[in-house]
Every structure is written in C-alpha cells, then in structure tokens.
Amino acid sequence: MLTAVPKMDLLDTAAKERIHEASLSILEETGIQIDSEMVANTLQEHGIACEVTGKQGDRTLWRVRFAGDTITQSLKTAPKTITLGGRDTKHDLYLDGKGSPDSVYYGTLGSAPVVHDIETGERRLGTLKDLIQFARLTQQLEHLDFFHVSVMPSDVPNSVVELYRWKATFENTAKHSITAASYDARNLPYLLEMAAVVQGGEDELRRRPIFSATECPIAPLFFAERSAENMVGLARAGLPVIIYSEPFAGASSPVTLAGTLLVTNAEQLAGIALTQIANPGAPVIYGGVSTTMDIRSGNISFGSPETGLLNVATTEMARFYEMPKEGSGGRTDSKLVDCQAGFEKQGNLLLAVLAGANLNNCAGTLESNYAVSLAQLVIDDDIAKRTKRILAGIALDEETLAADLIKEIGPGGQYLGNQHTLAHMRQELCLSDLCSKGTYEDWAKKGSLSLEQMAQKKALDLLNVSEPSSLEPVVIKELEKILKSAEKAHGLT
Amino acid sequence: MATEAQELGLQQKAKEAIITLNKAAAIQIAEQASSEMDASKLVDLIEGGFKAGIMVVGDRFAKGDMFLPELVAAAEIMKSSLAILEPKLRENQVVQEPVGKIVIATVKGDLHDIGKTMVSSLLMANGFEVIDLGIDVATLNIIDAARENQADMICLSALLTTTIMAQKEVVDALKEMGHREDFKVMIGGAASSKNWAEEIGADAYGADAQEATEIAIDLLTK
C-alpha cells in the first residue's frame, strides 16, 4: 500500500555540509575542555593530545583538539541502528539513523525537583513516592514508549539519589528508561550491577540495554568530569550513551539559531568521538536538545518556536550522520496545565517528529522542565497519540480512495453504516479519551469537566488499578542488596 | 583641570555611554577622567555618570524595555570603566560607599556560570559592589573573600541537585567559625528553593535575578 507520510525538510545538503565542516574546524582549532584525568589518560593512550591549560579549583583543565580524521573515523564506527531494551521484548525500541516513522518514539522527561500534587494541587518538592507514581502511570499509558526518570526525589540520601531513582524505575516500569547514569562516578558500577540483574545478565543487558544514559556537556564545549567519565565508562561497558547537548541560545551559545546549531553539532561530534575512542562500535545517540533563552527573564525557553526549529535542524544533522537522535520533543514553559502548555507542546513535538527524531522526551513536564504533573502526563499521552496519527499519514490505494464506492453512493447519498466505513473507521480516525468532542449538552451532562479535570480523573483511575511492581520478588531483593552495599560504601549505614 | 561644566558634561556622557552600551566611549571617558580630573571629583563622575547610567539600564530592564543580555553588557562596561579609575582613587585614598558589598559564587562542584552572572549584573545595576568569585569555589575561599572584602552579604548559586549541599556547607562553616552574624546569606540556582534556604539556615532564597536583587535591597538597605 502506498502511504503518503508527512515529512519536514529544513536544511539542504549544502547547509548540512557547511555545519559539519564548521564543526570540524571548531574541534580542530578550539577543541573541547575536560577536567578528568581518567578521560585525559584514555585520550592520550589513543594518541590524542591533551594540553594542560590551567586549574579549576584543585582539578586540572585540559584542552582536547580533535583532528578531522578522528571525527570521521568515530562517525564510521558509531552504530547506525540501536536496540534499546524494555524489561520484556514487547517494550523494545528499534532506533534507526534514518528516522523512519516506525522508529519514532515518545516518552516522559524530568529529573524535575518539583511536583504538582494531583490530589491537593500543591506545588511541592518531589519524593520517591512521586517517582514511583510517574513510572507506574507511564507504564500504563499506551502511547508513551519510554520512561525518562521524571522526578528528582528530595527525601532520599543525596549521595546515592541516582541509585534510588534507578531502583524505583526498574521496579515500576517495564519500559526502557533514560536519565543521567550517575552524579558520582563511584555509583556507576552499582547501576550496571542493578541493570544486569534486571535484564538477566551482562550479555543480555548489552544486547537489550534496559537503560540509556543522558550525559550532558556544559555548553559551550566543556565536557566536565562526571559526564565525560560516564561517556567513557558506559562506552567501555557497551551500553548506550546519549550525548545530551543543551546549549541555550544567547547564553551558552550564540543567540543566532545557526550558531547554536553549530555549538550543538560540535559537542555531538566530540562526544561521539569520546565514546568511539573508548570503545569503537559502542552505542551512542545524537542528543541535541538545544533551546533559547528568554531575554526578558534569562530563563530557559523550551516552548519557544525557535526551540522547535532547532529540534528539526539537530535531527537533520543526526540524519546526515545516519545516527539515531534524541530530542526535546514538545516541552513547555507554562506554569499550569493550560492552553500555553498545549500549543507549545504540540507545536514543537510535531516539528521534531516530522523531522524524524527517534526519542522525543517531553511528557509530564511543565515550567521548562522544573516541574512535573501527572495530569499533564495523561494529556501528553493524548498528544503523542494525535502526533502518531499525523505521522502515519494518508494511505492511498484503490480501497482507501474508494472511487467505486463514491460512484455507487452517488450525489446526495451517505456513508453512515456503509461496510467501507465500518471496515476503515478504527484505523483511519484517531479518538481522544480526553478532548471534548460531542455537543455542549452532552459535555454538561457528564459534569462539565475541563481537560485538566478529565486528565486528573484518568490518572487517578489508572493509578488505582496499577500493580505494585511487576518485577520478580527475588530481583527486587537483589536490587535492595546492591543499593544497601552502595549506601555502606558511602558510609550511610 | 576640567571646569565644572566640563565635569557635568563628562558625567552626562558617561551615563549615555552606559545606557547606549558604548564600551569604547565609556573607556575613553574613564581614561580622560583618570588623567585630567581631580581624584575627589572622580566619585561624582562614578555616581552621577556610570552608576546613574546603569541604574537607568536596571530600570529599563525591570520594565521590559531592555533585555538581560543588554544588562549584562552594561554591567561589564561599567566594571571595565571603574577598573580604569580604581588606581587613582586608591592612590588618593578616596573611599566610595556602595549601597552594599556582596560576594557571589557558584559553589564547589558546580560549574554553571550563567545564572550567577545574571544576578551579579542586576545587583551591580542597583548600586551594589559585587565581588564575583566565579564557579566551583571552595567553601573556605568564599568565606575568606567575604571577610577580606568586609562584605555585607554572601550569595551562593547551585544549579545541580547534587551540589546544593555545598550551600549548606558554607552556612555551617560560617556558624562554626563564629561568622554567621557577619553576613547575610542568600542562595539561588535551579536546584535550590525557599524550603532549602530555611532548612540550611540561609537568610533568603532568590528565585531569579529580579527577586534576588529585591531581596538584597530589602536586607541590606532597609
């Protein structure tokens, strides 16, 4: 069957080549800064010169310049397709570097410190219990494919917070999960141990990694200790790293979108090189989530139209290298579940998806990702559903064109109850559980609920029937043991 | 020596140079004043010229007529201009009285610069003397700088949920060393919050540059 699928093209080949060449020249002449001895040693072992430029506190700073050949070689060994594992294979994600529509996925985002409480409406610090609720609800929402660990819990020990986050995540969703691997390099081995237990061994973990790690350079061009070490450490373990560049135009990159695109791309190429030097062929994902600064307040603006454009352009650069891409999808700066949240999210998500971004993280977030809301999560699932429908395009064949049927019914006829209608309506038309579609009277009879109220109700209903944890008790016990030994190593018990 | 009219003219030009973000003009005025003006008159040039200019920029920023990058640029230009006047002021032991002296830093382990720069710029635009220690600054270095400069307030920025503990460390160290009462402490940055400020015993939390400045004015001038 022929299907016309919508697609967005912004940069032509000449523009992409120009950005690529300019990125190479930045990496060759200016390079990146690192402050990790481990990373400097790794690079030097592979013949990459690291020049000491000074000190930051008690840490040495190095400047690393990459020859064009090193980058070209890294782009050759970086995989063009990557499988990300769920706990079971039905939740596996198949990322291809071509961005085909069936390789486009939707998920949550977060590490938000603040939660909008669904029962009280209070805006408060997030807890481990919140994280569990977000994981469980994401598990149940049909159109969300992966779980970016939504909440930064305030009620667990700071030194091992990432291990509490991973444990709660692995226990409460079978979907692939994503966030920074660790905030302290000493915690990484515990995460790897946990993930191997969940997937049934290290080999299976490598084959179908249950998590991938977003590791952020600090824009512009600074690959600070923990992130850079995780890039190298995870690459060596053969586990997927997402190079999570987040320059914001006007503050940590040029205010022009082209300049911000260039900083993003240069950081991507440097990050890809780090992983490929550490372990050629290690899975790495192009992760540009460039955005803009609100020049009135200085806040980051994820909902800006320019963020949408940057998402398209960074995705096209990933396509240029045939690499899988994670982007910011549809995020919002709104403080409420409201119209602003709706149009910022749908507008920018649609742009990202039309460009073919593989992993679109955005669901559940408000306040430029500072806060998350379960009601918004349910709404974002509905936005993902609509977006999937748009991306599915228009099927065009004899059956769907239905010329014979149109002749048969003729002028003045109707299609209600026709066999053709019955046969096609379910896959042609996307239904929403939340949006009001019927008459005013019908809506009033059902309680005159706002979209947010509908979403709250659906979230609470789903949470009421969610299972405590679908993970085997013996695995949970094992995870607890690993967490305990990490706490002991930090002197917490 | 310059006449009174010339001095007033220079003040006006300095003010204009800051408002129009004309760095070359500001530097030229500072250089001219440094060689031609009496040290005691330099204070008037700073107050009626450079500082008056940045106050206008601060007001326009608050009204939304000028934007944050312009405010940061104005603060930078003022800093460069004052640096030119500084040696002559020191030589002649002319003391300026700022609205308040503030030491600001991004805490140990945190490498994020931008939020802190925004806050320093707006504080400067409101007449505070700001000593910016940079990023990833160790607790004791912050306290030493505050004591050496006889600061009125210490501002601590932390973007990461993993580095806000260093904000607590500064407050704890101040208490231990018996200097907690010498300084007001304000915290800020994406990871910190009002609750956190209360929990660690800081005096205030500034959610953004605007709020931080309002709080500084409140705590140090009223």
Protein model, in words:
The complex is a heterodimer of chains A (493) and B (222). Chain A is an alpha/beta fold and 493 residues long. Chain A is built from 18 helices and 23 strands. Chain A is globular and about 80 Å long. Chain B has helices at 4-19, 23-36, 39-63, 68-91, 114-125, 139-148, 165-176, 194-200, 209-221; strands at 101-106, 129-132, 153-157, 184-188, 204-206. Chain B has a 5-stranded parallel sheet with strand order 2-1-3-4-5, sandwiched between helices. In chain B, helix 8 (194-200) links the parallel strand 4 and strand 5. In chain B, helix 5 (114-125) packs across helix 9 (209-221) and helix 6 packs across helix 7 (165-176). The chains are: A alpha/beta (493), B alpha/beta (222). Chain A binds chain B through residues 56-57, 111, 113-114, 125, 152, 158, 161, 183-184, 218, 222, 224, 250-252, 255, 293, 295-299, 370, and chain B through 64, 67-69, 108, 111-112, 114-115, 118, 135-138, 160-162, 165, 190-191, 193, 195, 208-210.
Uncertain runs of chain B are none
Range of strand content of chain A: 15-25%
- Any idea what the shape of chain B is? globular
Strand-pairing-aware structural class of chain A: alpha/beta
Q: What is the count of helical runs of chain A?
A: 18
Order of helices and strands of chain B: HHHHEHEHEHEHEH
Between the first and last Cα atoms of chain A, what is the distance in angstroms? 62 Å
Q: How large is the count of helical segments of chain B?
A: 9
Main pleated sheet of chain A = 5 strands, parallel
In round numbers, the mean pLDDT of chain B is 90
Count every beta strand of chain B, where a strand is a DSSP E run of 2 or more residues: 5
Helical percent range of chain A?
Answer: 40-55%
| End-to-end gap of chain B | 39 Å
Order of adjacent strands in the largest pleated sheet of chain A: 10-11-12-14-16
> Largest interface, counted with CB-CB under 8 A?
A-B, 25 and 25 residues
Helix/strand class of chain B:
alpha/beta
Report the sheet with the most strands of chain B, covering strand number, pairing sense and barrel closure: 5 strands, parallel
Shape of chain A: globular
Strand composition percent of chain B: 5-15%
Radius of gyration of chain B: 18 Å
